[in-house]
Amino acid sequence: MSDLEFHRVKRLPPYVFAEVNAMKARAxxxxxxxxxLGMGNPDQPTPPHIVEKxxxxxxxxxxxxxxxxxxxxxxxxAVSAYYRRRFNVTIDSESExxxxxxxxxxxxxxxxxxxxxxxVILVPNPSYPIHPFGFILAGAAIRHLPVGQDLSFMEQLExxxxxxxxxxxxxxxxxxxxxxxxxxxxxxxxxxVEFCRKHEIYILSDLAYAEIYFEGPPxxxxxxxxxxxxVTVEFTSMSKTYSMPGWRIGFAVGNSKLIGALARIKSYxxxxxxxxxxxxxxxxxxxxxxxxxxxxALYKVRRDVLIEGLAAAGWKxxxxxxSMFAWAPIPPQxxxxxxxxxxxxxxxYARVAVSPGIGFGEYGDGHVxxxxxxxxxxxxxxxxxxxxxxxxxxxxxxxxxxxxxxxxLISDPRTKVES
Length: 419
Known about the structure:
Blueprint: H1 7-10, H2 17-29, E1 35-36, H3 48-58, H4 73-87, E2 97-100, H5 103-114, E3 120-125, H6 130-137, E4 141-146, H7 153-162, E5 170-174, H8 186-199, E6 202-206, E7 232-237, E8 250-254, H9 256-269, H10 275-286, H11 290-312, E9 325-329, H12 339-350, E10 352-353, E11 355-356, E12 367-371, H13 376-390, H14 393-400, H15 403-411
Parallel strand pairs: 1-10, 3-4, 3-5, 5-6, 6-7
Antiparallel strand pairs: 2-8, 7-8, 9-12, 11-12
């Protein structure tokens, strides 16, 4: 029997990143040196004091037992202290905070808690895949809000609500954005909060990149608007801020009704993250924050190297003000390719892996996402390889080729460009 007979699986489209990942795996198996700017997987080690706290905690046999699905009280208090310190927002650690096994798990489980079949959820497009697909798996219908520099978010929001039946029940926000790296201020959030309160629409804010910013004031939390608490829950993660992606630890704060619904679902599905990991996360939030400043500075240097190197290659990419990603428009000579073919082409001929924008939604197809997860030397090497490829005869041939010929050239392992 085919797994396509399963209802929820049928609702998921083919994972477009899988094609690039398969090409990457084949190239590496053949001994190719691939510079991977695809997955946003932090390459820095977790700071030593956090690791040491984990080791200390794991040596206590009491921590080997089941944990608490809501999160240990000390970590919830640390989350509350972080919000007070960083955003001047008071969070009740008992009723307005919960620990999640990464923000991705938290969003998906909240979707299960608050969504019924046919509910309409508003999601920006392009967006991180869990934002729409967490709700699709819960049976929702997704209404996409196109986002971009020339589009008014409020106009898109008002139009979507006006033309949706039934009325939307929730709106997903993600700033700093993955994949676009867009940053917003409180003036952006205020009319959204007012509108959503009026129309009884929940706001689910993903703030995973709050501490990875480079210019201007630190990105705000929507909960800095007092009225937002009536309708908002906000997710964030330890993954990027403290280089803890494999630890799978995050948290959600905000509206007590939404937090309660998430807690109810989680109580049936898990016993919480491993207690020593929660103890170490508590040490991260309560301890010295020099490591956060250092990782921010590291990404800023990498960003500058990447943007300058791509410009030297003839590829003009906006400098991201935040996050660990650059959202790169496909160069004009290749704009007709679409992002998947362009990403495959870079992998085949420049030996650089990037994420195709179509993987983040149809409105992302004119871009690719580059993750700053290689060191400066490797990023420079990637830019040189791209420059060499752009100047090569095969690049001109590809740019002028019909789709069938282009597909053959992209997939032919015998055709290479020497860097």
